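Lab manual, section 2.4: Encoding a predicted structure.

Procedure: take the sequence of the chain (94 residues), apply the prediction step described in section 2.3, and record the output as structure tokens. A sample record is shown.
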Amino acid sequence: MLGMCGVDCCACKAYGDECDGCRELEGAVPWAPFLGVTVCPSYICAENRGFASCAPCGEKPCQLWPDTRSPDVSDADFARDIALRLENLKKASD
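Recorded output:
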């Protein structure tokens, strides 16, 4: 199961315990309050554009991706995460 931004929810350590994925939660993921919001900005963006995910967006990865980055993630890990999410979105749209 992929989140709107290409995150593989099943590979996330929070999936199933703390989080059921952004699609199931309509974007109200448990980490959103850490950003001072109740719904993930990427989820809102895709929904507002009528997209089922970020896959068809020509602006990905947009500024929302680094804006929602966990401060606990290193630059190298974040770069790997972005690459993986882009790969997931490409596979899902093929």
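Check your result against the sample. The CA atoms of residues 78 and 88 lie 15 Å apart.
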